[in-house]
Amino acid sequence: MRSVAIIGGGIVGTSIAYHLRDADCDVTLFEKGELGAGTTAKSAAMLTHHQEAPDRDAYEFREHAWEWYDEKIDDGTLSFDRIGTLHLARSDAEYAAIRELQQSFASFGLDLEILSPDEIADHGIDPDGLRGGLWFPDDGVLDPGGIVQFFAGTARRAGVEIETNVEVTGVATAEGAVTGVETAGGFHAADVVVNAAGPWAPTVNDLLGVDAPLRHTEGPILVLKGDDPVSLPFVFFEEGVYFRGEGRSQVFAGKLATDYGESETVDPDYALSIGDSMYDLVASTAGAYLERLLEFDVINEWNGLRTVTPDGRCIVDETDVDGYILACGMSGYGVTVAPAVGEFTAEWLTSGRKPEPLESLALDRFEAVAE
After folding, report:
1. Tens digit of pLDDT for each residue in 184-206?
2. Which Gene3D superfamilies has this protein been placed in (predicted)?
3. What is the secondary structure of 234-280 as a DSSP string?
């Protein structure tokens, strides 16, 4: 029987394990810490159609993930708070950009409305100086931890082995093919090794000398809390910061940096601090558009790493090492695409035929990109 080792217990790794649960193979997932405690726990937790540079392949891939989420939300398996996404434009250039986004999504079959300043004000945002905003009404907030536990729990009950607090320290090969993984607890034989290690994916690649264009960006989030109820969609401001409502009286304020060209590869085990510039940006943006938030207290903060690729789409592909598969570089959208990544990867590993939706996520699309 074929043996598969998955490295990484975030939302992508557990999705792959979940979708392999009924396959005719032995599946073991290795997580160096606790399940979902890395980037998954530090995400904005949004299920969103929003993209800065939409293309049809990416849109259809997300739609496939949406179908899985819709089923689990409708049957009560997963929670979902449909708050919508609002991409605001202040400058003429940004307004032209959101109109272009509207047209792109319309060509995919998703009709979106550009809200007027008065309509923006209906969402609790001071529209002074704003030209308009592209409105994604179906977007909303998921519970990533709950999704990870659903994936992992269902996989476990079906016979998948999930090892937490077990770090993979090496990937063994023979004659150009993987033979297993090394951990502190010993050697585990495997015919296939899947790198779903999130921000640790470049470190795992280094174990084998595999090159892939993966870099890190920071995703700082401040948690604001007030005395009164607050309702707010997921709002992108041109100033480079977003806000979204969280529960009854909290707001997340963060940055979703995905620019590969301005990023670098860092040590994901190093705790990232949040500098004064982030606090200043949040305060100045709130002062301009969400003045009531200036009375809120910052009750928590965290700074997670996003693993990005040059085109902002993930890599799901084989490598020059036979049996070594990449499922990484989610570029800040791991929560949104995880069900599709898991399903198509599992289909590929069990059938031996790569599903067509994975073709646009191949590693060789970056052959001209220099690390």
Report:
1. 889 999 999 999 999 999 999 99
2. D-Amino Acid Oxidase, subunit A, domain 2, FAD/NAD(P)-binding domain
3. EEE-TTS-EEEEETTTEEEEE-----GGG-B---TTSPPP--HHHHH
Name residue, tokens 């963060």. 254
Domain boundaries, the chain: 2-43+144-212+311-366, 82-139+215-308
Longest C-alpha distance within the chain, in Å?
66
- How confident is the model over 261-278, as a mean pLDDT? 87
Q: Report domain 2-43+144-212+311-366's class.
A: alpha beta
Strand, coil or helix: 209: coil
- At 274-323, the pLDDT tens digits run 999 999 999 999 999 999 999 999 999 999 889 999 999 999 999 999 99
Neighbours of 130 (CB within 10 A): 23
Q: In what order do the strands lie in the sheet with 297-308?
A: 113-115, 132-136, 85-89, 234-236, 242-246, 250-254, 215-225, 297-308
Could you say which DSSP state residue 366 is in?
G
Angle at 259 between CA 257 and CA 260, to 5 degrees: 130
Residue type, 102: Q
Tell me the H-state helices in 290-364. Answer: 334-351
Q: What is the CATH class of 82-139+215-308?
A: alpha beta
Across the chain, mean pLDDT equals 94
Q: Per DSSP, what are the bridge partners of residue 87?
A: 134, 236
* Alpha helix (H) residue ranges in 132-245: 144-157, 201-208
DSSP letters spanning 338-355: HHHHHHHHHHHHHHSS--
Locate all alpha helices (DSSP H) within the chain, ordered by sequence: 11-19, 56-74, 92-108, 117-121, 144-157, 201-208, 276-289, 334-351
Q: What is the tens place of the pLDDT at every residue in 72-117?
A: 999 999 999 999 999 999 999 999 999 999 999 999 999 999 999 9
User: pTM value?
Assistant: 0.95
DSSP annotation of 38: S
Using one digit for the tens of pLDDT, what is the confidence trace for 124-136? Answer: 999 999 999 999 9
